[in-house]
Specification:
- A hairpin with a 5-residue loop joins β2 and β3.
- The protein has one domain: Nuclear Transport Factor 2, Chain: A, CATH 3.10.450.
- The termini are far apart.
- The protein is globular, with a radius of gyration of 21 Å.
- It has a 4-stranded antiparallel beta sheet.
- With 135 residues, it is of the alpha+beta class.
- It is built from 4 helices and 4 strands, in the order ααααββββ.
Length: 135
């Protein structure tokens, strides 16, 4: 009886270690995936606070320094900048903790758009630092 209990505890400990290892070994998001996640979150966001954690410290600080009464306007500006459809990231260039993404999308009027996105790695996660789109 005692032997079964010891065996059960040992098995539980082993399974716990295996589960922890698999969680800890989960691959980090690529800059492309982090940007696509930001883009999806932005489309659903009702408040600026929902997307602030996905932005670089510098970008976030700039937005947080604005009057709270202007937050809805800033969310609208972010959404307007990233309003392309059929978004595709075509190139990812990582240089240490910085990354440049190049992408294509289609504007609301149906025009082809080209984008350049800067990502920065902070605290082990990729964050949006800057983006620009042009037709």
């Amino acid at each position: 009886m005692k032997r079964n209990r010891v065996l059960g505890i040992g098995l539980a400990a082993l399974l716990g270690c295996l589960a922890w290892t698999s969680l800890a070994a989960a691959p980090a998001k690529t800059p492309t995936q982090a940007y696509l996640d930001f883009h999806a979150a932005l489309q659903k966001a009702k408040t600026l606070d929902e997307v602030l954690p996905l932005l670089s410290k510098e970008y976030r600080s700039m937005l947080e320094s604005q009057p709270k009464s202007d937050r809805a306007m800033w969310l609208g500006r972010l959404k307007d900048m990233s309003n392309g459809k059929d978004l595709k990231i075509t190139k990812e260039t990582v240089n240490g903790d910085k990354c440049t993404l190049e992408g294509t999308a289609t504007s609301a009027k149906g025009n082809a758009m080209q984008g350049k996105i800067s990502m920065v790695k902070e605290g082990g996660a990729w964050k949006l630092d800057e983006e620009g789109w042009a037709t």
